[in-house]
Design brief:
Layout: E1 3-10, E2 13-20, E3 26-31, H1 39-50, E4 53-58, H2 71-76, H3 83-98, E5 105-111, H4 113-124, E6 131-134, H5 150-153, E7 161-166, H6 174-185, E8 192-197, H7 213-231
Parallel strand pairs: 3-4, 3-5, 5-6, 6-7, 7-8
Antiparallel strand pairs: 1-2, 2-4
C-alpha cells in the first residue's frame, strides 16, 4: 500500500501525518516516548499507514526530537510537560483525526511517557476505540508535573486496552503495575490484554535498546500481537 507523509499544522501544533494514499477512515494517534517524533516513531507511523491507518503523531517537545537534540537534553524537558496542557494538545489532534482527516474511528498508542498519556487520554475521551500503552511511565511517587493519577483514572477507560510491561522495569515498580492491572481489570467495560516480558527493561520497544537481546526479543514478540490488536480497531 502506498502512503503519504507530511508535517502538518493543527492550530498552533505541529504533527507528523502518515496515511494511505487517498486517506482512510481508520485513525491512530501516536504518543511518542522521550525521542519525540524521531526516526523510530516516524517508522512506526509509516508502518501503521501501510496497514490502512491514518496516523497522526503528537509533537512532544514542539520541534525537538532525537533527530536534532540529545536524549539528555530531551530528558531535561520532561518536567515542563503538564498533564492538562498535554491532554489539550492531544485532544486537538484527536479532533483533527475525527474531523478534517475524515476518520470514523481512532485508537491511541503510546510509549513510556506517551503510554501514560494514552491511558489518561482514554480515561477522559471515550471516542477512542482502543488503547495501547507500552511500558507506561507511571511513577510512584509521582513527579511534581504529574497532576493526574493515571492508575486511578484508568478505571474510567471504556475501550479495550493492551498494556506491555517489562519485568525488569527500573522506572515503574511491580507494585505500581499491579495497581494499574487491578484498576484496568475492575472496569465494567473494556477488555484488558497484558503483555509481560521477563528480563526486559523499561523502553524495550525503543530500537536504541535492542543491543540487549532480551529487549529486542521482547519487542519482536510483542509488536506483531500489537498490530493484530490494532487491526481489530479499524472502522
Amino acid at each position: 500500500m502506498s502512503i503519504e507523509t507530511s508535517t502538518v499544522r493543527v492550530g498552533e501544533l505541529s504533527a507528523y501525518l502518515a496515511r494511505p494514499a487517498g486517506g482512510s477512515v481508520s485513525g491512530m494517534l501516536l504518543l511518542p516516548m522521550i525521542t519525540g517524533i524521531g526516526e523510530q516513531v516516524r517508522a512506526w507511523a509509516d508502518e501503521l499507514a501501510g496497514r490502512g491507518f491514518t496516523t497522526l503523531t503528537w509533537d512532544v517537545f514542539h520541534g525537538a526530537s532525537t533527530d536534532n537534540t540529545s536524549r539528555e537534553d530531551l530528558g531535561k524537558k520532561l518536567g515542563g510537560l503538564r498533564d492538562e496542557t498535554v491532554l489539550a494538545e492531544q485532544t486537538a489532534l484527536l479532533d483533527h483525526l475525527l474531523g478534517d482527516l475524515g476518520c470514523t474511528s481512532a485508537g491511541v498508542i503510546g510509549w513510556c511517557l506517551g503510554g501514560r498519556f494514552a491511558l489518561l487520554l482514554a480515561a477522559r475521551d471515550q471516542r477512542l476505540s482502543g488503547v495501547v500503552a507500552y511500558h507506561p511511565t507511571v511513577r510512584d511517587p509521582a513527579p511534581p508535573n504529574h497532576d493526574l493519577d493515571a492508575v486511578a483514572l484508568s478505571t474510567q477507560i471504556t475501550a479495550p486496552v493492551l498494556v506491555a510491561y517489562p519485568e525488569a522495569d527500573a522506572v515503574v515498580s511491580h507494585e505500581t503495575f499491579a495497581r494499574l492491572q487491578t484498576a484496568l481489570q475492575s472496569r465494567p467495560r473494556g477488555a484488558t490484554f497484558t503483555q509481560h516480558f521477563p528480563g526486559a527493561e523499561h523502553g524495550f520497544s525503543d530500537s536504541a535498546r535492542h543491543g540487549t537481546a532480551v529487549n529486542a526479543d521482547a519487542f519482536a514478540l510483542s509488536w506483531p500481537q500489537t498490530l493484530a490488536f490494532l487491526d481489530t480497531l479499524k472502522g
